[in-house]
């Protein structure tokens, strides 16, 4: 008599089916990214649409209408009426020194609090980070008084004061961007193996050699990422230039866009063209540093 044996269960020992759930999550994430991308790019496309339409046609048919003709005249008028070359050089004179000074000071401070064994390293890092938690408007009144009382050489300011000078905008941008850069760079430097520092110490390397010749070259991806962000933030600054500059010829290019609005009427087509011209340099910077920017954001996120 043969014993009856139960047929083996094909599904025994198998993990639960997660493929449909993974597909659902993939569809949801892709849908979210698509919607976010459309919402993000729509204002840019709308600005391009306005900039290419004549004002007379917009006034006649309205903003939401099919274009009868397209022209580049708004870009030409924005370039000449807005004195774009002059204000662009003002922005360049503010942005380039501010970015370089911020990266140098932030990297040095980050090296001290992350690589050197000092007693108050963590409280010092928290102090720099806490400065970013307060809104900039809180400091406007005391800064306005300080800027009017601080005297500088005449070659830095025509008025002899820090107020109404491009040097003053460099100082304020470096001050407010320093805390965030110290926080990011210090976290990046902590991912550098300690064995590299120990080997440098065995060879007799001092603190300056460790910082300039060893740590800083290893931080190039992070520095490139921070340079891209700082260039965008400082170049696009509107608030501090409006508050600390009184002479129109000293305005950076973003604040000078106010001159395109007009006194009694606003030419939105001309303003859209001027905005696109102003935004072009930051786009070029991002495209040039795109690989380094992405590498700087991802390095240090995982540890092997």
Number of helix segments? 14
Shape: globular
The mean pLDDT is 84
Structural class of the helices, strands and pairings? mainly alpha
Which CATH first-tier class of the largest domain would you pick? Mainly Alpha
The helix-strand sequence is: HHHHHHHHHHHHHH
Give a quick set of tags describing it.
single chain, 304 residues, mainly alpha, MetI-like fold, 2 domains, 14 helices, 0% strand, globular, disordered C terminus
Explain the overall architecture.
With 304 residues, the chain is an all-alpha fold. It is 66% helix and 0% strand. The chain has 14 helices and no strands. Helix 4 (84-115) packs antiparallel against helix 5 (121-130). The longest helix has 33 residues, at 19-51. The chain is globular and about 75 Å long. Residues 300-304 have low confidence and may be disordered.
How would you summarize this macromolecular structure in one to three sentences?
By secondary structure, this protein is an all-alpha fold. It has 14 helices and no strands.
Please write out the topology.
Layout: H1 19-51, H2 55-61, H3 73-81, H4 84-115, H5 121-130, H6 140-149, H7 166-189, H8 194-202, H9 207-218, H10 220-235, H11 239-244, H12 253-256, H13 268-288, H14 290-298
